[in-house]
Amino acid sequence: MSDSPALPRPLTPGRYRIALVCLGNICRSPMADVVLAERVAARGLDDAVSVVSAGTGSWHVGEPMDRRAARLLTARGYDASRHRAQQATASWLVDDDAPIDLVLAMDDANLRDLQDLNPTAPPERLRLFGDFDPEVPGAVVPDPWSGGPEQFEHVLAMIERTCDAIAERLERLPRLAG
């Protein structure tokens, strides 16, 4: 755990917002959104921590999660039914009303797209999701969209262990833990 980065401090005392971003917001980021929200709730932090997901592209906006991702999450006891794809915006890191404390990209291309979207974003608030992976720090979460069930399983395993590590760090943040 000590090898991965610390979470940046909350921009709003007592609140923490995390955005998870992939390409189309139908596979990786919504899977991570569902898992992280569950981990946050299990630690009793859901009143203080909110989780959203989005894509860097717009072509799936309004669509539900990929059926293979949703089916896998449902089989594992998660609720994948409420997701609707949305697109990331430049304002996420500068919105005074609801700033996002940490934006986590699933891969290097998503990270570059987010950096291009908001070149003034503080680097500690715009990172790779895999930077928090306790087994492979800095890992890229591969896009399972063109693959089979085994790729979705692999991605979910990465997401679950990384969400566990992030939730543990959230629990330790001053002003969030009860």
Written account of the structure:
This protein has helices at 28-42, 67-75, 108-117, 149-172, and strands spanning 16-22, 49-55, 102-105, 126-128. It is α/β, with parallel strands linked by helices. It has one domain (16-171): Response regulator (Rossmann fold). α1 packs across α4 (149-172). The longest helix is centred in the C-terminal third of the chain and has 24 residues, at 149-172. The radius of gyration is 15 Å and the shape is globular. The relative contact order is 0.22. The mean pLDDT is 93.
Keywords:
178 residues; alpha/beta; Rossmann fold; 4-stranded parallel sheet; 33% helix
Summarize the helices and strands and which ones pair or pack.
Layout: E1 16-22, H1 28-42, E2 49-55, H2 67-75, E3 102-105, H3 108-117, E4 126-128, H4 149-172
Parallel strand pairs: 1-2, 1-3, 3-4
